[in-house]
Amino acid sequence: MTNCKIPNELEPGVCKNPTDCPAFYDINDVNSIGNTSRLSFVRQLQCTGMADGKICCPRSGSYADPWISMVNITKRVRTKPITVRKRIGTQPEVPCGAPDFTALVNSGEIANIDDFPWMAVLIYEQAMDPVIPGCGGALISKTFVVTAAHCLTGSIIRKKGKLAAVRVGEYDLLNNPDCIIEGQFQECTDEVVDVKPKTITVHPHYNENTASQHHDIGLIELAKPVEFTSFIRHICLPEQGSRQTVKKFNVCGWGRTNFFSADKENNVPSPIKLKTSLPYFDHVKCSQIYQPQRLQLIDGQICAGGRSVRDTCSGDSGSPLMYYDVNKGAWILSGLVSMGPLHCGTVGMPGIYTNVGEYVSWIKTIAHL
Fold first, then answer.
1. Domain 248-367 - what CATH class?
2. Is 343 one of the catalytic residues?
3. What's the predicted TM-score (pTM) here?
4. Matching CATH topology for 74-104+120-222 and 248-367?
5. How far apart are alpha carbons 359 and 203 in whole angstroms?
């Protein structure tokens, strides 16, 4: 086992899976995680450089002082993105998929405060106070968000009401602005931005009544453009019809998770943006797995996951499946959360995602890209 550093303690801990560390669940719950001091402590327990979500667990007993002190902490403010202006015109360009954060998103479950700044939260009329995310999405320009079609029509509208707003710049649903402590600095986001939808376009071939959920993709045009900052950016689209060669993806969102409970069956919505990595799952094998459920996969769908615990879940629908392109130095949108097994994170049962690469021409036509 790997030794690790527990904040406020001299004795080193050991890196363990959260489910093997009872002390972790004593301090990591949805009621206290909204406290900046506690959230920062839990984040610092994540074992750096490990892709399996291990945390630093005390060798015995409980954590001695599970808070990060706010004394002598300096607030760090980021400037707006520095961009190069065009020779013609005055509008600065911010390249798509360009992060302020490190591209090596592979340690821990809690996202950094600036991870994946294109994430959008879809807010419905009957889930506004408090905000309960029903779906996610990805910002692809200053005025358009791409998401799953089933987030824009059908049963979710009947249950939660019409789409009232799209929120960008979100991290911690319990606070606004959101803050974390890194070393001797307190870093905070700008306030969230809620924008009403102007138009909603569902793919013309989507049919909510079919089990296979083909063409599960839609676009939201925002009533006004958003301003790009360190915490609000747009992600790059893939090439139209590009072949799937990526072996590992990243996903994030505020969907249901057992991260806050030792009981694997006790999934609750996360108030904090969580992330994980998922392996690509062979398309033919995925089709065979879901054949007994009468699902027929098409090229417009891809599969990922199939590992224990690590998965997308209810509330993550429409959220992006993405990867970092080292050659382009940018994050690329590969898929959108569409559907998966009843029990999230079931071994051998991958999630099914809309393959965005098959719909790029349609997206660009609607979004004027």
1. mainly beta
2. no
3. 0.89
4. yes
5. 9
pLDDT for the residue numbered 134:
84
Q: Taking residues 33-43, report their average pLDDT.
A: 92
pLDDT tens string 180-192: 998 888 999 999 9
Catalytic residue among 141, 150, 311, 338: 150
Known catalytic residue: 205? no
pLDDT of residue 299: 95
Catalytically annotated residue among 114, 172, 216, 316: 216
What separation in angstroms does the CA of 143 have from each of 89, 93, 228, 249? 19, 15, 11, 26
- Please indicate whether residue 114 is annotated as part of the active site: no
Range 74-104+120-222: architecture per CATH = Beta Barrel (2.40)
The residue ranges of DSSP E strands in 132-267, in sequence order, are 135-139, 144-147, 163-168, 179-182, 185-188, 193-195, 197-202, 218-222, 248-253, 256-257
What is the rounded average pLDDT of the residues 237-256? Answer: 86
Residue 314 has pLDDT above 60, yes or no: no
Q: Read off the amino acid at residue 325.
A: D
Q: CA 369 to CA 361: how far, in whole Å?
A: 9
Annotated catalytic residue, options 107, 212, 230, 317? 317
For the chain, which residues make up each domain, given as ranges?
A: 3-58, 74-104+120-222, 248-367
